[in-house]
Amino acid sequence: MAVAEMGVEIRWRSEQGHHTHDNRDCCGVGLRDDAVLAIVLDGSSNGKASGAFARDVARNLIDWFVVAEVVTPKTIIDRLRVIHAELSGTYRRDSASVVIARIERQGATCILHAGDCLAGLVQETSDIEWSIQPHNLANAISPVAIDELARSPSRNLLTRSFRTKRFMVPQETVQTFRAGQRLVLTTDGFWASLDPEQMTAFLRGDAFQPSEDRDDCSALTLTVVEDQPDEVIEAAGNNFYVVDARH
Fold first, then answer.
1. pLDDT tens digits, residue range 58-70?
2. Which residues belong to any copy of the PPM-type phosphatase domain (predicted)?
């Protein structure tokens, strides 16, 4: 029996916060006949050029993905090593949290992450079932519920990230992603700053009332659809990069 062709609907929403003069969240998506690669980064508010650093990482990885002969978790990590070596001379004190999802057309999904960007499946109730844990001091000993982590001051002390001083290998997670499901990749301004109602409104594209002192808030939603082509439904702002290499 032939496997149904899977397409992906793509929605990106990103709102600048008040911690930096620029929005340091960014997103990249590459589309191939056999797979989709998505990356979301959150540039650190400490490094002066961490936003530019994050955008260069996203563009470099997507440009590589659309022409690479072999794309596996290992080759993605190998490419990240190359990107790190190429950019560390220009961005000497910058860093970013990163989450990457490689989605095969048959639904197999690999997630790589370092830092406090998260990935999860959006349920019918609009709740999110988080697939990974952030890398921070609050959960360094054992896993902690995401809503509890959001209230912990030590969550901002990262134990792993994509930083120019030293390359840190991302953590790998394998997940099945079926037709009709929604995978969301978010920065911590989303999962740690918004309550459940605000999260639902943000993902729908509705207006929401965030706190006055908030970080950049971004979410990439990927919905698998059968027998339909890939489509970018919503992507506002200059921090979204997409390359379509389908034949």
1. 999 999 999 999 9
2. 3-222
